[in-house]
């Protein structure tokens, strides 16, 4: 159930949660606030409360999320490896990182790693799992075909949802990487 709540909050941040809750959330205990009507798209704080069962919880501590890794482009395939880290001081119960490419992945069925979902034409969101203060999370690896064979791709990486903790150092959890079709790994 905790995983559904995390995905509900992540989708609420994208503005794709309706008043009935996230798709597939029936029976999970997630509900919208009373003034929201079924089918209505809710955003911001209202969306957050909808996927948290009406609770309006503010940041439960402070953490410093960071993502480090590399990206390489070769003949229309992009491979991204990233590792989440929580520099603390508080634990993060769950977080979601969004990866966005300037050239969209190919439309055909591509296998994403467990915990990742395509949320738009150019976006993939992946969960990090729980991260204790000072802990390095599990590596996330994506290997995708892009549309066509671009000579370069701009990759944006950033925290979509931080598990309800405040992160005042956004410099290390947001990256823009220009990846050229050389087969070389570009680090971030």
Please outline the major beta sheet: 5 strands, antiparallel
Order of helices and strands: HHEEEEEEEEE
Distance between the termini: 33 Å
Binned strand content: 25-35%
The rounded Rg comes to 17 Å
Query: Structural class, from helix and strand content?
Result: mainly beta
- Could you report the average pLDDT, rounded to the nearest whole number? 78
Low-confidence stretches: 1-7, 9-57
Broad shape: elongated
* Helical content (DSSP H or I, runs of 4+): 10-25%
Please give the count of helices: 2
Major β-sheet strand ordering: 4-5-3-7-8
Describe what this molecule looks like in 3D:
The chain is mainly beta and 188 residues long. Helices cover 11% and strands 31% of the residues. It is built from two helices and nine strands. The strands form two sheets. A five-stranded antiparallel beta sheet has the order 4-5-3-7-8. Strand 4 and strand 5 form a beta hairpin. Helix 1 runs antiparallel to helix 2. The radius of gyration is 17 Å and the shape is elongated. The N terminus is likely disordered.
């Amino acid at each position: 159930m905790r995983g559904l709540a995390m995905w509900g909050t992540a989708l609420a941040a994208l503005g794709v949660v309706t008043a009935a809750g996230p798709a597939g959330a029936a029976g999970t205990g997630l509900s919208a606030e009373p003034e929201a009507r079924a089918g209505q798209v809710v955003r911001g704080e209202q969306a957050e409360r909808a996927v948290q069962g009406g609770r309006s919880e503010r940041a439960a501590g402070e953490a410093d999320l960071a993502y480090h890794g590399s990206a390489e482009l070769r003949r229309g395939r992009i491979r991204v490896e990233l590792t989440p880290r929580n520099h603390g001081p508080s634990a993060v119960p769950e977080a979601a990182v969004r990866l966005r490419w300037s050239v969209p992945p190919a439309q055909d069925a591509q296998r994403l790693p467990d915990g990742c979902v395509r949320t738009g034409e150019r976006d993939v969101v992946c969960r990090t799992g729980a991260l204790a203060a000072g802990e390095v999370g599990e590596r996330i690896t994506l290997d995708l075909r892009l549309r066509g064979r671009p000579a370069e791709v701009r990759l944006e990486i950033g925290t979509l949802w931080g598990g309800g903790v405040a992160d005042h150092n956004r410099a290390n959890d947001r990256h823009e990487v220009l990846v050229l079709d050389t087969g070389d790994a570009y680090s971030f």
